Amino acid sequence: MSKPLVSDDLWEVIVPLQPRQRPKPKGGRPRCDDRLALVGIILVLRSGIP
């Protein structure tokens, strides 16, 4: 199994820096998990995928 891109220790540091989720009065699509979004960003930056 490969090493995770965002370790639990790193995630604990990042969580307080995230903005709070504001309620959406008109509804809309629910947000994806913040940790998964960060993993996707790091994957693109590390691999060079356009």
UniProtKB/TrEMBL annotation:
It comes from Paracoccus sediminis. The lineage of its organism: Bacteria, Pseudomonadati, Pseudomonadota, Alphaproteobacteria, Rhodobacterales. This is Transposase. It comes from the Bacteria. Residues 6-50 form the Insertion element IS402-like domain.
